Amino acid sequence: xxxxxxxxxxxxxxxxxxxxxxxxxxxxxxxxxxxxxxxxxxxxxxxxxxxxxxxxxxxxxxxxxxxxxxxxxxxxxxxxxxxxxxxxxxxxxxxxxxxxxxxxxxxxxxxxxxxxxxx
Amino acid sequence: xxxxxxxxxxxxxxxxxxxxxxxxxxxxxxxxxxxxxxxxxxxxxxxxxxxxxxxxxxxxxxxxxxxxxxxxxxxxxxxxxxxxxxxxxxxxxxxxxxxxxxxxxxxxx
Lengths: 119, 109
What we know:
The complex is a heterodimer of chains A (about 120) and B (about 110). Chain A is mainly beta and about 120 residues long.
């Protein structure tokens, strides 16, 4: 079974930067699109970014566009989210999620990593 | 609209049947997927492609759709089904790649 583990969450000041990582097990990582989804504690799920298997297609939610960058390293089965110009409303648990068939079917999720933006 | 709308809360008596709905224009073009999330846990895929279930998901969970509405039905709800349920789909407006519903809190009485 595929397992994904996020890391990199931390307390950061407004305006600061943070890079999240998601490590995936298995040999087929490069064949799947990957996404980042976040959840403010006590609130719902918010999709924030997608990257295709070969990195050709990248999408962002308006709430993070221009501030966050998604990337992947298929040689190391790693997914990244570079977060710049962080704001208080970016405080959330960030999940990486594997996507089936570019159809918004998120069949595997990491356990999440908490990002807190506060002075 | 790129939104998916869910009822914030639904309740069901133990052993009874409950339907959770998800409505939005994107569902006229794309299938919905359904996720279960329990406190402190990551979401779990329950239903995809309208009514397909991943391995290990009990058969009491089923999906359906009609027009702009997708439904998740739990037939014979169990105490362990008390959780938050989310739908999602591709966004037909092109504004976002994916949209999620706001979630439904299911209480099993």
